[in-house]
Request: fold
Amino acid sequence: MDNLLYWAGLSAVAVNALTGVLDAGRKRMDLIGVMMVGSATALGGGTVRDVLLGRPVFWISDQVYLIVALATTLVVFFVVRGLRLPPRLFLIPDALGLALFTVVGTQIALAWQAPWLVATLLGVITGVVGGVLRDVLCNEVPLIFVRGELYATAAWAGALALVALQALGVSPVVAAWAGMTIVLGVRLAAMAFRLTLPTYSERQ
Amino acid sequence: MDNLLYWAGLSAVAVNALTGVLDAGRKRMDLIGVMMVGSATALGGGTVRDVLLGRPVFWISDQVYLIVALATTLVVFFVVRGLRLPPRLFLIPDALGLALFTVVGTQIALAWQAPWLVATLLGVITGVVGGVLRDVLCNEVPLIFVRGELYATAAWAGALALVALQALGVSPVVAAWAGMTIVLGVRLAAMAFRLTLPTYSERQ
Amino acid sequence: MDNLLYWAGLSAVAVNALTGVLDAGRKRMDLIGVMMVGSATALGGGTVRDVLLGRPVFWISDQVYLIVALATTLVVFFVVRGLRLPPRLFLIPDALGLALFTVVGTQIALAWQAPWLVATLLGVITGVVGGVLRDVLCNEVPLIFVRGELYATAAWAGALALVALQALGVSPVVAAWAGMTIVLGVRLAAMAFRLTLPTYSERQ
Reply:
């Protein structure tokens, strides 16, 4: 289980760094700017989770995460530079990073003895904060606030399912895979079919 | 005293969640967006205070705060939805939340052995950060930066009075009520009479 | 060495508070607004470093930093108020604050057993976060994202040099001076000669 979490975490870092670079690339930033946006996207969510839990920040104690994030930004920078990419391409890795980080974050919070509702919220935070940072640094409206795309909703559904399955006695590994599938499924379905939640609106 | 702080804290969470929902309601967010803005408004100030103090974050160890915040946003969402509210209505609960949080934050910082000047600043941070988050997430100019409304000033005056009274031997409970009254009084007077502080301006 | 770090830290706080006030002054904020922007600029970088390291936040345990920050903003507010200053004047103290904070931050992270690459990044964070906060609060594009001015690049070059020199056996004090000189030199040269890094751009 710890092994699965470790590799899922590293994959999420690489995938999120990739989305950061793809997004920064549309803003004509220089190399260091791209590296900063990529690293913030890759490490931001887990950092907020660890600070809230009072846990040592994951990339401070283990340098591997930072190296993976920086190496990914460098490789993507030089490979993708000059290519012309379809603007919505990065939505797929973004959904994958959301699913990976949400599940890893929820499991870590549970292992750190957070109450169950708090653990699901910390999972969502781990999943979405990196992308919010990326969008803010690139001066775009955060994806999470775009109506009709069920971004945080997908993450929360997956985290709640994971916690419920574990409470029912399902093994953590199976619960993790189920949670990831739900996050990805809801997010991709929402993009494909433009699903929406009820909207609040004062009568005008 | 601990009891008073606990209930004042819960009330402040509910009141701030309410202002978050009222504000988000003007932006046509969906249900999850409103819940996120409401919770961030309710829990943001105390979270920053606890992280700065190196104290366990209050809503992580005690799930009740998170439940109160989420339940308030849900109730307000379904009750207020479709009503037409006067745009400045939420300024009253906002002032109340500012007063409650400032006093609770200052007392907690003093109990955690922060030096007195630091404690007043942590009180101000507890009071204002939630509202700043709300305004940033709703893409408005933070109230705190609107000149002529003595927002942070009201909070700081109350926190300084609280610390001064306790240093003079007044009981913490009386000092808390006095501090709250001062925050509310300065803030409401500033709104009513458009009081201002001296402004910095370079000669043009 | 500890003594040098302490005084370098206090100087950096004062210098950064100065740049915060100069910047806020162009926005017609009131006295409290200016004090908040000045303090956030002065204390923001070190705060993020300490929270990430899980170290007690420097200005919470030692009130002197906060007093220096607030006193500097007050003095600058009343001295500079009404003067007409050249708009780019504050770039020099800004570069000095960047150099001081980067070196202090890197040394503190090394002393706290952070891995070397993490330590250089924490040095950059200590150096740049205050200025980013200042620019965001004053509603300007952060200097760090202005292309062609090698802002974070200068800080990172200095931090890497410092770590490399110490690994080669150079004394921490000499390494600190060398690091500071490199940050200042790169930053001032970049401003004078408009040096740039390669830019990422998709083919349009």
In short: Chain A touches chain C at residues 21, 24-26, 28-34, 36, 47, 51, 56-57, 59-60, 63, 66-67, 77, 80-85, 137 (CB under 8 Å). The helical segments of chain A are 2-25, 31-53, 58-61, 64-80, 91-111, 116-137, 151-167, 172-193. The mean pLDDT of chain A is 86.
